[in-house]
Design goal:
Largest interface: A-B, 36 and 44 residues
CATH class of the largest domain in chain B: Alpha Beta
InterPro entries (chain B): NIR_SIR_4Fe-4S (IPR051329), NiRdtase/SiRdtase_haem-b_fer (IPR005117), Nit/Sulf_reduc_fer-like_dom_sf (IPR036136), NO2/SO3_Rdtase_4Fe4S_dom (IPR006067), NO2/SO3_Rdtase_4Fe4S_sf (IPR045854)
Number of helices of chain B: 18
Number of domains of chain A: 1
Largest sheet of chain A: 8 strands, mixed
CATH topology of the largest domain in chain B: Sulfite Reductase Hemoprotein, domain 1
Oligomer: heterodimer
Strand content of chain A: 15-25%
Pfam families (chain B): NIR_SIR, NIR_SIR_ferr
Protein name (chain A): Oxidoreductase
Shape of chain B: globular
Helix content of chain A: 10-25%
Structural class of chain A: alpha/beta
Mean pLDDT of chain B: 94
CATH architecture of the largest domain in chain B: 2-Layer Sandwich
Structural class of chain B: alpha+beta
Radius of gyration of chain B: 23 Å
Strand content of chain B: 15-25%
Largest sheet of chain B: 6 strands, mixed
Helix content of chain B: 25-40%
GO molecular function (chain B): 4 iron, 4 sulfur cluster binding; heme binding; metal ion binding; oxidoreductase activity
Keywords (chain B): 4Fe-4S, Heme, Iron, Iron-sulfur, Metal-binding, Oxidoreductase
CATH topology of chain A: TIM Barrel
Chain lengths: ~170, ~550
């Protein structure tokens, strides 16, 4: 499995598999002995079975609403957000809402069409783990995570916009 | 005018370094064309029909003389010695080399300029009234708020990949709207409430393009300090729920229509309740910080030069015409606002040469405190000219071709670059503008016709704002040939409206005659006080249609 990039650019081993949404009429198959990310609504639907398990996390697709987890986000060991195409920017809002509104503090992982030039935006929106698309050069991630040392607006990384930092 | 501090300079430098890195990776084949596309667009770089095109940002139209000189140098060193003023008050180069763009951006950064977010599906350059700070009819100077919006929207991490482009305009005048706010994704009208407090009336979902719409009001009064939290709420709702399945239905206006303005406003309100007290809320100190950059220049205490000007007018009819049409009154006695028209017949509307840019810089230094403004009507404004220097200024403008006294008349045409330059265009627009300017070359006749907005776009993307022209012309493609569809009755002002299509389209060579016939219908039907738009609104489309297709 590809390695995962941390927010500081370091690499670590991936122990999670993403379980695709089962086709209509099929049931969810979770691989044995493997930490798995399942669609968030299915985790909620199977809450009695999945709650509290350290080896079951969830993933959101870009059109999913993070509100569905609301108060339960913090119970999860890992949440991933899928970027089906890198130009689909909904995942950025999902990241910020999970962090800033629903108080999620565990690992927030970007998956899917994750490229180098969007990493810093993702980081600013609360993502702290990134599975880079396989054809991209993972050694360039650290640089791309830190193109900017200054930012104008508040986001998940800082709630202080530059206009307040200037004033202090 | 806003001046960078160390933070702004650092961000500007880092942006140039980032784009240099991205360009190198693109040229090395590490980034596919599809992956590089939004990165270069958000640095202003298009690839158009003939060459790349670089759209340089002019935040809310403000330019210092040193910036104009740098632009002149860039057009000379990297391009063919001319540039184009766009309807978003930006300045466009038509022929730069892709490999040179990082160097051009570095040169721009040295004079506090950039090309950030002048294209792409992100928040674009915020525009406002080119007379800001200089005219009487102003609730407050909008430029500090424009700069606050510029900084908030620059590299906003959540909003770099919106469903579609996103444009914000601010108007501060009570009685006129020179910023066309009702045809923007967000239009902000500065207002005071009954308690005298400053705020904004918020319009959302206006726009041109395929589905032209006048933006409805979603909030009558937004207190000024809540500006950014409310904008963030609107854009978040749009980012989450705007359509991404069809490029032509992806603008916020489609979402506002689908949810109804009330439904959309409710969603924004719910979001705003969650963020309105966050540190993104402005404070009075923050607003003052930005206001200090837009204080009055060092005006002298003067009297109006009425008598001097009257005698000069009497002696010189062309000066008289220019004064009437291209000079507006100023809030300070003894000063005036001058518009330099870039609409001389024979020149593509909005085009300026390197020499002209340098001349504008010199004129700005000599006559207007070193500042100039680009307008969405593709002209240049010197906002603070002494009345007793108007004659001298006019004499300098005439040989430069900037004194054509056709402001707001039929030949003050808004026009996109069209099929001569733009890959998206269905049809050429500049030759149509020129043919119309040639037909109507009698200034007295133009003055008699009064104010008429004629806007020309080469395609549905409506860069020439054809929907809001009193007369709008749209280039269309019919079986591989260029035709022109005409609409009537549009307006971008306080009484904003979208024009109605007259009927079947015309060949290019028919256009001057079509415009002539339309004008004749107006002349036949008008009452003494009526403008073209007034007459159209009273008599409707039918009489125009009858004459044109007779």
């Amino acid at each position: 499995m590809p390695e995962v990039i941390a927010a500081d650019g370091a690499l670590f081993e991936n122990r999670w598999v993403v379980v695709e949404r089962p086709a209509e009429g099929e049931s969810l198959t979770i691989p044995e002995g493997q930490a798995a990310l399942i669609p968030a609504d299915l985790w909620l639907a199977g809450y009695d079975q999945f709650a509290g398990r350290e080896d079951i996390g969830v993933w959101f697709d870009s059109h999913d609403e993070p509100e569905l987890l609301a108060g339960k986000a913090q119970e999860l060991p890992l949440i991933a957000v899928n970027f089906p195409r890198f130009v689909d920017g909904r995942g950025y809002s999902i990241g910020r809402l999970l962090r800033e509104r629903f108080g999620y503090r565990g690992e927030l992982r970007a998956i899917g069409d994750v490229l180098l030039d969007q990493l810093q935006f993702m980081k600013r929106c609360g993502f702290d783990a990134f599975v880079l698309r396989a054809d991209k050069d993972i050694t360039k991630a650290a640089r791309c995570l830190n193109f900017f040392s200054q930012t104008y607006q508040a986001a998940t990384d800082t709630d202080q916009p530059l206009f307040r930092r200037r004033a202090s | 005018m806003y001046v960078y501090d160390e933070h702004d300079r650092q961000i500007a430098r880092e942006r140039v370094a980032q784009f240099r890195d991205q360009t190198e990776r693109a040229l090395a084949g590490e980034l596919s064309e599809e992956e590089f596309l939004p990165l270069r667009l958000q640095n202003g770089l298009y690839v158009q029909r003939l060459a790349p095109m670089l759209r340089i940002c002019v935040p809310y139209g403000m330019l210092r003389s040193e910036q104009l000189r740098r632009l002149a140098r860039i057009t000379r060193d990297y391009d063919k010695g001319y540039a184009h003023v766009t309807t978003r008050t930006n300045i466009q180069l038509n022929w730069p080399n892709l490999e040179d763009v990082p160097d051009i951006l570095a040169e721009l950064a040295e004079v506090e300029m950039h090309a950030n977010q002048t294209s792409g599906n992100c928040i674009r350059n915020t525009t406002t009234d080119p007379f800001s700070g200089a005219h009487l009819d102003e609730i407050a100077d909008p430029r500090p708020y424009c700069e606050i919006i510029r900084q908030w929207s620059t590299f906003h991490p959540e909003f770099a990949f919106l469903p579609r482009k996103f444009k914000i305009a601010v108007n501060a005048s009570e009685h006129t709207d020179r910023a066309a706010i009702r045809v923007h994704d967000i239009g902000l009208q500065m207002v005071r409430n009954s308690a005298g407090e400053l705020g904004f009336r918020v319009h959302v979902g206006g726009g041109l393009g395929r589905t032209p719409m006048v933006g409805p009001v979603i909030r009558e009064f937004l207190p000024e300090l809540d500006l950014l939290t409310y904008l963030e709420s609107i854009v978040r709702v749009y980012n989450r729920y705007g359509r991404r399945d069809n490029k032509f239905k992806a603008r916020i206006k489609i979402l506002v229509k689908a949810l109804s303005p009330e439904g959309f406003a409710e969603k924004v309100e719910a979001e705003w309740q969650q963020v309105k007290d966050s540190p993104t809320r402005l404070t009075p100190d923050v607003v003052s910080h930005f206001q200090q950059y837009f204080t009055e220049p060092d005006y002298q205490v003067l009297e109006n030069a009425t008598d001097t000007l009257a005698s000069l007018r009497f002696d010189n009819r062309q000066f008289d015409q220019w004064l009437t049409h291209n000079v507006a009154s100023h809030k300070k006695p003894g000063y005036a606002i001058v518009t330099l028209t870039l609409k001389k017949t024979g020149t593509p509307p909005g085009d300026v040469t390197d020499y002209q840019l340098e001349q504008i810089a010199d004129l700005a230094d000599e006559f207007s405190f070193g500042e100039a403004r680009a307008t969405h009507e593709q002209n240049i404004v010197l906002a603070d000219v002494r009345q007793d220097q108007l004659f001298e200024l006019w004499q300098r403008l005439v040989p430069l071709g900037f004194a054509t006294a056709n402001l707001n008349t039929l030949t003050d045409i808004i026009c996109c670059p069209g099929g001569d330059f733009c890959a998206l265009a269905n049809a050429k627009s500049i030759p149509v503008a020129q043919a119309i300017q040639d037909r109507f070359d009698d200034l007295d006749y133009l003055y008699d016709l009064g104010p008429i907005d004629l806007n020309i776009s080469g395609c549905m993307n409506a860069c020439g704002h054809h929907h809001v022209g009193n007369i709008g012309v749209l280039g269309v493609d019919k079986r591989g040939e260029e035709f022109y569809q005409v609409s009537l009755g549009g307006s971008s002002h306080h009484d904003a409206s979208i024009g109605k299509i007259l009927g079947p389209s015309f060949a290019q060579e028919e256009m001057p005659e079509v415009i002539s016939r339309l004008i004749n219908v107006y002349v036949d039907h008008r009452t003494e006080e009526e403008t073209f738009l007034d007459t159209y609104r009273r008599v409707g489309l039918a009489p125009f249609k009858e004459k044109v297709y007779a």
